Amino acid sequence: MIRLSLKSYILYCLLLFALTALFSQKLAASTDKLVKIAVLAHRGDDEALKRWALTADYLSDAIQGYDFIIKPKSLKSMKQAVENNLVEFILTNPGNYVDIEANYGATRIATIKAKQRDRALTSFSAVIFTRYDKHDINNLEDLRDKSFMAVNPKAFGGFQMAWLELQQVNINPFEDLSSLQFSGFPQDNIVYAVESGKVDAGTVRSDTLERMDHEGAISIKDFKILNRQHNDRFPLLHSTRLYPEWPFAKLKQTSDQLAQKVAVALLTMQADSQAAIISRSEGWTIPLDYTPVHEAFKKLKIGPYTQINKVTFEKVIEQYGHYILLVLFTLIGLGLVIVYIGRTNHNLNLTQTSLRKEIDSRRKAQAELAKHRDTLEQNVIKRTRELAELNEELQEDIVARKTAEASLKKSSHTLQTMHEITSSGSMSFEAKVDALLRTGCHCFETGYGALYQIKNSKALVLRFVGTEQIFKRTQWIDKNKLFASKLNKNSDALVILNAHNDEDYKSCFQHQTLNINSYLGIPVVVAGSLFGYLEYGSIKSMNSPRSLIDIDMLQLISQWIGGEIQRQQAQDNAQKHQADLAHVARLGTMGEMASGLAHELNQPLTAIVNYTRGCVRRLSAKTVNDLPAIVEAMEHSCSEAERAAEIIRRMRELVNKEVHRREANDINNIIEVVIKLVQPKIKQNHVNIKRELIKKIPPVYVDRIQIEQVLINLLNNAIDAMKNTPLLKREIVIQSRYDKHSIEIKVFDRGSGLPNNMRSDVFEPFFSTKNEGMGMGLSISRSIIEAHKGSLNAEQRELGGSVFSFTLPLGSEDNNEYP
Amino acid sequence: MSTHNVYVVDDDQAVRDSLRWLIESVGLKVKTFSNGQELLENFNESEISCLVLDVRMPGISGLDLQQRLKKQNSKVPVIIVTGHADVPMAIQAMKVGAFDFIEKPYSDQLLLERIQCAIEQDDCFKKQKNISDEINQRIDSLTPREKEVMALVVGGHSNKSIAKELGVSIKTVEVHRGNLMSKMKAKSLSELVRIVMTSNRT
Could you tell me which of A129, A124, A149 has the C-alpha nearest to residue A139? Predict the structure, then answer.
C-alpha cells in the first residue's frame, strides 16, 4: 500500500469521487447497490435508526450508485453480522470496534465529532462519581468494599473505562467491591441509583451528568466526581483517561474505493447539516488513533486480549504434573529423616546439661570456703590501722584547736583593722589600699604586699608596701613573668610556703630574679572581671604550717580591695561624665554661635582687605600726597588682623576641653570677652547690654574658660528669655561687686521671669523651658561655680524678668585648691 | 574732582572706615553712617549717587532700610553687603530692587566696579530727570489756550483745521502757535514734537 500524507490522501479521495460522479451518473438510478451499515444500538433499535437514518440518506445522496441503510445491532448480533459478512460498514463504540478490528480486520475511516453539551468533541471519557455527602469516599481507593453500578460489563464508556482506572488502584471490580450491579441502558438509571443512595458510586459516559443537569433531572452539585481529570481539550467532567469517539469503519471485504468515497462524504459533511444535527454530531473528522483503547483492553485482558488470561495454570498442570509429584515425594522423605535426627540430638543435649550443672555446684562450694578465710585476715589488719589513724587524728586535733584559737584572735584583730580602714571617710583611695595591703603583711607575716593591675600583656605595680623593697610603684612588668599570671578571676589563692618544695614556683620570675621564697597570690576581681592580682611575699620561707595561713582572710582582703577599686572607678567615671557633659554643652553653644562667629571673622577680614587694597590703589596711582594717611591705614589693617586672630584664639579656647589651671583673672575682663562672644546673638535679638562694673576689682583665682562658659550660659539664657519682650525693653544688665571675702556677678534680664515653683528646678539637669534646650546649661554652670567654692542663685525681679547671680571667693591660689 | 557721593552704612567702625579708605582711593566722595536711623535723618536723594548697606545691623537692618527708601520713592542704587549671604536674603534684596548683592569678604575690584556702574546708572537717571523737569516747567508756562493749540499742532492738524476746531480765526491760531513755539524753545514742528514726547505729557 502506498503511504500517503493525510492531505494528499484527502485530495486523492476527492479526485476519485469527482471522477466516479462524472462517469456513473447515468447508471445511478437503476442499479443502486445496497450498502449496509451496522450500528451499535445500545439504546434500542428505534433510537439507533432515528439517529443514523439521515446519515445513511446523506451518504446515498453523496455517493452515486449506492443506497446506504442502517442495521441496528446489539454487541452480540454485531459480531455475528461481521462474522458472516452481512454488512459493509460498522458504526460502533471504540471498544467494540477494537474487538472487531482485531478479530475481523475492520479499518476505521472516520471518527465522529460527537456533540457533548454544546461542543463537538472527538474524544470521550467516563465519569466515576458518588453522592456529594458520602464523606468516606473521596478517591478511587475508597471504593473498595463499596457498592458500585455501571451500565453493562461490555459497555466501553459505561464500564470498561472505569474498570481500567479501578484496576490502576488495585481494585478488581468483580472481587473487591461489596456489590457490582449493571443497570442496562439508559445510563440515567445509574445516576438516579447513586442519587437515591441505592449504590455508593457509579460510572457513566462523560456528558451524562451535564446533560441530565441541563435537562433538570438532577443537580450536578449533588455529586462528587472521583479521580477528577483536567484537560484543556476536554472540558467535560471526567474521571478516566480520554478515548477516541465512535469510529466509522469498513470491513475487510468492503472495497477500498467505496470506503474512500464514504470517507470523503463523511469528512465533507457540514456541521449544520440535518444528518449531523440528528446524529448529535458536528460531522466527522479523520480517523483517530485507537491505540488507547487497545492498551486499555490489553490491561483489562478483555476483548481481543481475553485469551492471555486463561492459558497458564491448566497447561502447567498438564505439562509438568509428574515432575511436581516426584518433587513432592522427595520432600516428604527428607522431612521424615530430619525429624528422626532431631529427636536423637535432643536426648544427647539433655544428658550433657545435667552433668555440667553438677560440676558447677562443686566448684562454687570450694570458692566460698577460700573467701571466708581471706576476709577474716583482712578484717584484723584493717581494724589495727583504723585505730592508729584515730590516734593520730586526735593528736592533730589538739594542735589544730590551739592554733585555731590563736588565729581566730588574729583574724578578729585584722578584721577590725580592715573595717576601720574601709569605713574611714578621710582617707584617700590610695591610702586605703596601702593600709589594707599593710594589714595583710602583718596578718600573713610577709615582707611585702603588692597590688598589680593587668593591662593587656603588662602588669602595673599599682600599690606596694613592705619592708622588703622589691618593686617601685608604677613599675611595668611583663605579665607572663608573674607567678600570679596563671590565676583567672575564679581561681583560688596560690600558696607557696617554701620555694624549694614547689618545682613550678622554683622556675618563676619571683623566685629566680627576686629571690622570693614564700608567696601568696590571689586574683582581684572588680565588677565581675579580673582587675589584677594581690600578692604577698617574703625573702625568707614561711615556717608556719599551711593550715595557719588564713586563706579566707586573704580572700577577704582581695575582695575589699576590689570593692575600693570599684568605688574609685565609679567616682572617676562620674567625674569624667560630668566633664564630657560640660564639653558637649560647650560644643552645643559653639554650634549655636558658629554662624555668628563666621560673621564676626568676616568683619575684620573685610576691613583688612579694604585698607590694604585702598593703600595698593593709592600707591600704584603714584598720587600719594599723604603718606601719614597710608601709614595710618596700614596700622588699622594690622589691628584688624589682630582682632581676627583674637576671635580665632577665643574660639579655640572655648572648644578646648583641657582642664585649665586656675589663675588670677580680672572678672571684668572675662565679662568683656564673653559679651564679645555673645555679641552676634545680642545684635540679632536687638538686646541692649548695660554694664555696671566696678573698676579695680581684685583678681579671682578661677579656671577662666569655665567661668566664661557660665557667663555665656547666663547671657544666652537671658537673651532667650526675652524672645517675647518688646524690642525697646530688651535689656541685660551685668553687674559686678565685691566685699572682703568674695565677688558677686549679677545678670539681670527683662524676660519672662522665674515663677517661685521653678526657682529650684532650673538647676536640675535636663530641665529646660526652651524648645531646643538640652537643660544642661544651668546644671553644669552650678557645678562649675560650686567647684570654685562659690554659689549660683536665681531670683525673680520685682518689675519682671529674673536675676542670676554667682559668687566667687577672693583669695590666693593656695587656699583655693582644686577638689 | 567728581561730585559723586557714595554713602556707606555699617555698624562696624573698622569696616566703615576701611570702606571709606578704599572707595576714596578711586576718587569718589564717601559719607559714612553707623546705622540706618542716622542715614535716614541725613538723607538727601540728589546728593547720593550710590548707597552701600550692610545687611546685619542693630536697629534697622540693611534690608529694612532698603525697603524704607523704596517707599520714599528713592531711586538711589543700593548695593547690599553681607557677611553671610543666603539665597532667600539675596532674593528679597533683589526683589525690593537692590542694584547688587555682594558677599563679604569681597574683592575690592568687584565692589568698586559695581559702585561705578551704580553711579553711571544714577547719573543717567538724574540727567533724564533734569531734562523732563525743565520741559515740564516750559509746558507749565503756557496759557490754557496755547496748550490746546499745541496739542492739536502735535496731533498733526493744519492751522486751518485748528481754527475751525477752536472756532477762532487762522490769524489767532498763528499768533498762539508762534508764542508757544518760543516758550517751548522749539525751532521747528519736529523739534516741538520731540520735546513734548520727552516730557511724558501728551
Answer: A129
CB within 8 Å: B18 and A604: no
Q: Which regions of chain A carry the CATH code 3.30.565.10?
A: 661-816
Q: Per-residue pLDDT tens for A469-494?
A: 777 666 778 888 788 888 888 888 88
Spell out which residues of chain A touch residue B59, defining contact as CB-CB under 8 Å: 686
Q: How far is A648 from chain B (nearest CA, A)?
A: 17
Contact A605/B at CB under 8 A = yes
Superfamily of domain A6-120+246-310 in the CATH hierarchy: Periplasmic binding protein-like II (3.40.190.10)
Q: The CATH number of A424-549 is which of 3.40.50.10790, 3.30.360.10, 3.30.450.40, 3.60.20.10?
A: 3.30.450.40
Q: Residue B14 and residue A609: Cβ atoms within 8 Å?
A: no
Question: Residue range A242-251: average pLDDT?
Answer: 89
With a CB cutoff of 8 Å and minimum separation 6, the contacts of A386 are none
Query: Cα–Cα distance between A686 and A618 in angstroms, integer?
Result: 39
Checking B131-139 for CB contacts under 8 A at 24+ apart, the result is B131/B198, B132/B198, B132/B199, B132/B200, B135/B184, B135/B195, B135/B196, B135/B198, B135/B199, B136/B199, B136/B201, B138/B183, B138/B184, B138/B185, B138/B195, B139/B184, B139/B196, B139/B199, B139/B201
- Is B12 in Cβ contact with A602 (below 8 Å)? no
Q: What is the CATH number of domain A125-241?
A: 3.40.190.10
The 10s digit of each residue's pLDDT in A356-413 is 888 888 888 888 888 887 887 888 788 888 888 888 888 888 888 887 787 778 778 8
Window B:129-158, CB contacts with A under 8 Å: none
Nearest to B83 among A599, A611, A615 (CB): A599
Residue A765 has pLDDT above 60, yes or no: no
Whole-model pTM? Answer: 0.34
* Nearest Cα residue in chain B from A614: B22
The answer to whether residues A738 and A791 touch, using CB atoms and an 8 Å cutoff, is no
Cβ–Cβ of B15/A606 closer than 8 Å?
yes
Residue A595, pLDDT > 70, answer no
ipTM for the complex shown:
0.73
Rounded Cα–Cα distance for residues B180 and B157 (Å) = 15
DSSP letter for A501, please.
G
CB contact under 8 A, A609 and B108: yes
Which DSSP category does A747 fall into? E
CB contact under 8 A, A603 and B83: yes
Residue B21 and residue A610: Cβ atoms within 8 Å? yes
Query: According to the model, what pLDDT value does residue B202 have?
Result: 40
Q: What is the mean predicted confidence (pLDDT) over A56-78?
A: 88
- Is B59 in the A-facing interface, judged by CB distances under 8 Å? yes
Q: Is B125 on the interface with A (CB under 8 A)?
A: no
Domains of chain B (ranges; CATH) run 5-129 (3.40.50.2300), 141-198 (1.10.10.10)
Q: Beta A147-150 vs A179-182: how paired, if at all?
A: parallel
Contact check, Cβ <8 Å, A636/B18: yes
User: Does residue A661 register a pLDDT over 80?
Assistant: no
Say yes or no: B22 contacts chain A, CB-CB below 8 A: yes
**Mean pLDDT for back-to-back runs of 10 residues, chain B (202 residues):** 81 89 90 89 87 82 85 88 74 84 84 92 86 86 88 87 88 90 87 79 44
* Ranges for all domains in chain A classified under CATH 3.30.450.40: 424-549
- 3-state class (DSSP) for residue B61: coil
Q: Please give the class, per CATH, of domain A661-816.
A: alpha beta
Asked if B63 and B80 touch (Cβ cutoff 8 Å), the reply is yes
In this prediction, residue A818 has a pLDDT band, given cuts at 50, 70 and 90, of: very low
Residue A647 near chain B (CB below 8 Å):
no
Check whether A297 has a pLDDT greater than 90. no
- pLDDT given for residue B77 in this prediction: 92
User: Chain B residue closest to A683 (CA)?
Assistant: B58
A599 at interface of B, judged by CB pairs closer than 8 A: yes
Per DSSP, A231 falls in state B
